[in-house]
Structures are given as C-alpha cells and as structure tokens.
Fold this sequence. Notes:
Elements: H1 76-81, E1 82-91, H2 98-116, E2 120-128, H3 132-140, H4 145-162, E3 169-172, H5 176-191, E4 195-205, E5 210-212, E6 231-240, H6 246-255, E7 260-261, H7 263-274, E8 280-281, E9 283-284, E10 300-301, H8 303-308, H9 310-317, E11 339-343, H10 347-360, E12 369-372, E13 375-377, E14 380-381, H11 392-399, H12 401-411, E15 418-420, H13 422-452, H14 468-476, H15 480-485, H16 489-510, H17 512-515, H18 521-545, H19 550-559, H20 567-570, H21 600-604
Parallel strand pairs: 1-2, 1-11, 2-3, 7-12, 11-12, 13-15
Antiparallel strand pairs: 4-5, 4-6, 6-8, 9-10, 13-14
Zinc ion binds near residues 208 and 223.
Amino acid sequence: MKPxxxxxxxxxxxxxxxxCSRSPRAGPSTAPQTLHTPSKRFPALVSHNTTTWPSVFxxxxxxxxxxxxxxxSGDEDAMANSFTVTTPLYYANASPHxxxxxxxxxxxxxxxxxxLRGREVKFVTGTDEHGEKIAMxxxxxxxxxxxxxxxxxAEFRDLWSALDVEYDAFVRTTSDSHKELVRGVIERVWENxxxxxxxxxxxxxxxxxxYKAEGDMLEGNVCPIHQTVCETRSEENYFFRLxxxxxxLEEVFRTNPDFVMPExxxxxxxxxxxxxxxxxxxxxxxxxxxxxxxxxPSQTVYVWFDALFGYVSALLGMAPGAGTDARSASDxxxxxxxxHIIGKDILRFHAVYWPAMLMSAGMPLPKRVFGHGxxxxxxxxxxxxxxxxxxxxxxxxxxxxxxxxxxxxxxxxFGQDGDFVEERFVNIVNANLANDVGNCLNRTxxxxxxxxxxxxxxxxxxxxxxxPVRLECExxxxxxxxxxxxxxxxxxxESILAVSGRGNQYLEEAAPWALFKSEDEGDRRKAEETLVAxxxxxxxxxxxxxxxxxxxxxxxxxxxxxxxxxxQAAGWEGTAWGGLCEGQEIAKPKPVFARLELEEAETVA
Length: 605
Ligand SMILES: [Zn+2]
C-alpha cells in the first residue's frame, strides 16, 4: 500500500483498510507541509463542549491491531518477515541505570532471537530529550539543555555497546526529523478535532512530567513514584481529547486480550480505561525546552506526546528518503511495532494514551505492550538516598556483559519484580555458565585433543537417538522458541541450561578418560561418542543461548572450530542435532568463561 502521491488525500491509515467502514473524509488534498505559517485550517480552536466530531479515524480500531495475516498491503511479504521491537526511549536527564539496562537487554535478546529465525528485525531504542526536568538537570550542571542531552545520550549508547546490545536505530527526540514528524502528527490530530484549548488546574509531578489525579497520589498529594509533593499548577494548555476514544479503547482490550502483557498489567489498564478516560494536556506554556507547538509559539509540545512518536521517527530514520510523515512508517517500514517493552511505571502512557494518539493520527496500533517489573537490590528499592544504586556500567566492567545479561534474563521472571543480590549473581553465573558450559566444554575439548588428535572422531548425527545427552537436547531445545516468543527469557534459559547441565553430568557418569585407557574397542568407541555428544550439545546450546549470551556463544563456536560468523550465521535451524562432522578440527582448548569472584566488600556486608 504505497501512497499514490506525496500528499495523498485523507483516508483511513489503518492497516486493514478493507475492514474500515469509514470512507475517506473530503479534505484538503494539498495540505501544507508545515504549520509555520498561520493557516486558515486553524481559524478557531474547537470548543471544549462540542459534542459532534468529524470522525475520520478508523472505526475498526480494534481490528487495526493488524495481525500479519490481516495486512492487506502490497508489502505483505515484507511485513510478514519483519519484526519490530522497541525499548522505552530513555529520559536523558541522568545517566543510565539498571532500570534502563534491564529492558534493553531483554529487547536485544528478543531481537537476536528473531534474527536467528531469519526475520528482518528492527530494534529501536533511543533517548527522550525534552521537558522541564531535563532543562533543570542541565542547569544544575552548568550546561545548556542541548549539551546535557548530547552527553547523556552518548552514555546510553556507550552502555549498550558494553552490554553487546545491537540496536538497529537509536532515535533522539531532539533531531530535526523527529520534530518535523511530531508537528505533522499534531496537525493531523488537530484536523481530526481532537485538540482544544482549556485552562487546567491540578497537581503536577515534575519527576513524572505528569498531572496526577487525586487517586494516583499518596496522602498530602505525594507522588508515589518520586515521594515528592506534587506542585499545584494552573495553566492554559492544549488538550488531547482522549475521552473520545473511550469506546474504541474498550474495544481494543475486549478483542485483543494480549495487547497488554502480562495479564496483571492488562487488568490494571482495563481498570483505568473502564474507570473513564479524561482528556489530557499536550502542551506546556512554561516549558521552553521542547518542540514548539504548531500554530502557537507560546507553547511547547508535552514531552510524552513528543517522545512516543520517537518509535515511528526511528523507523523512518532507517529508511533513507522516507521523509517525516508518520504514516509512511506503516508502508513496510516496520510500523506497527510487534512489541513495546516498557517498565510498568509508564504503562498508562503506552497502553492508554498512545493507542488513542495513534488512532487520532490514523495509524495502526502496536501489536503488544509488555510491561516488565521493578528491580530491587538486596530486597530494597534502589535509590540514591539509600546509597544502594546498582550501576550497570560498573557491573559490566567487573563481570562482563554475558554474566550480567544472563543473570537478569534468567533469574528474574520478565514481567515480575526481581531482586539483585551480588552473591546470588556470582553463584548462579558460576554454576551455569562457568561450570556447566565453560568448564564442561574445556574438559571435553582437552580430552578430545589428547585422545583424538583434536579432530571430531565421528558425525554427531550418528549418535544413537536414545543417547542421554541427545535425548535431553532434542527434548528441551524445542521448548525454547515458545519461551522466547512469549518473552519468557527465564524459561528459555532454563530449558537450554538443562541441556548443558545434562552434558556436564554425563561427562562425570561416563568418565571417558578411564574408557580411553581401556584396550577394548567398544570402550574407546563409547568414550569418543561421549565427547562428540557433549560437544554437539554445546554447539546447540551456543546457538539457542546466543540471544542471551552472544559473547559466550561466539566463543563456544570458535572453540569448536566452526567457520562463519558464529551462532547467528547458523540460524535457528542450526539447533537441529547433527551439526558436528567427523574430521572437524577443533581449536586449541582455552576457557570460554572466567569464573566470577565475589568482591571483598560484598562478602563483608
Ligand atoms: Zn512522580
């Protein structure tokens, strides 16, 4: 479904136009590109009390959650093969913390998994760089807002690099193309009759950059997230008519039970929606550091209305010449996203405001919003005041990215709250990665070098189907795709590690070092088979675990002497048993994973 011209007449932009009962509204076919010049299209603001709206958004909003099969676009194949995952766009007021590293590691694991499956992945991350809080942080550091966000944004990219995060697009909401996209969206939402001007008085949390309803605050108007008293503010702003989308949003949740996951979060969101949606202000008179509101230079765009569209501008930024019209991203450029991974603290923005904003802009909705839990350290909420902040940069520098990624994805059920205890971290990583994988591989390769001249003595495919290691591998690995696809990284890791665990255990049981000393040909054959079975299992483990531990997986394949670009080149089909061939030369055995050491300071505490 390519636009027929650069400026198509207004029409439904949902991805199931055939299902959309609304005919295109008669409208200007030559809309100006920007709102910089006073336009006759904005002669008067829509009155707050108007009860009939021009309904141009798709009335089948719920069905707009295009499943791949429903997409009737000419880019059907491209859509079927593409997979778009996003992290939150992190607020660039301070350095990245563990709470930003965590969903990014998860998104990277998911992206890597789908790349293994041969999908054309678009992994979007970035920084949200506008708003009052950023201007305040910059000032407190003696920097201009722009210098401040340059510095912060670079810190995020450095951390992603240290964590082996391979994103496809890193969007910054201060980029010119993003600003132009946001102004274009506001123009469209305005034409839809979804913006009006009104005076607002309420309790504002600067930390959240959000007006809080009475029921969302603790006693004394305290923000439950920031534990600070919300300011009473009164200003004249532009409002987004969220209330108009009440029925459509209810329909979304009725017809798409998986739109928000996990289920507990979904129930929370449904409760908010059913409680009645209130319009919210989308401009600020007192905030200078933001995108100037189209048609009214005295206001800037509310940071959330600006930032959420960063997901779309990121996709357009990946396609040279795609321009800045948000709707273009629906034409085979990766929108709608398959999943937004977010923290539960920003669930309302992603699961309530964002779908309504997209409907108003005539765009399809993301397929899923997944809200992960909060992290604690030693059972306590992390905070500067408690002095127990877990610095991801420091943790990666001390233990390496594979260990950090493995712990957070394996030990914490994604979607639930999770705790970090350094001693547990060291013990789990050592038992699983250093011992069951690293040490097992090293011992097996050393035996192979000594007894078989560093060459694989038989095809792994010739190992009998009821061999205990092969059995475990062929039983557990098929469980893994569903786990990854359900964002259950803990389950995926558990199934994979069961295979290496069985391999390590079998090495002890079979004791091939003793069998190699035997004069009996059958004993020798069993010893060889043992080594090959274990190496084959570890070859498979390396591919299956690549989404979680890409560095370790690559080193395992190097040790096995496998050519090519490592596990990612093998693809998921490489997890089928039988990849090691007779005569294959292995590399000189060297450790693939160094045991972690618990630092003194931690043991004393
Ligand atoms: Zn707050």
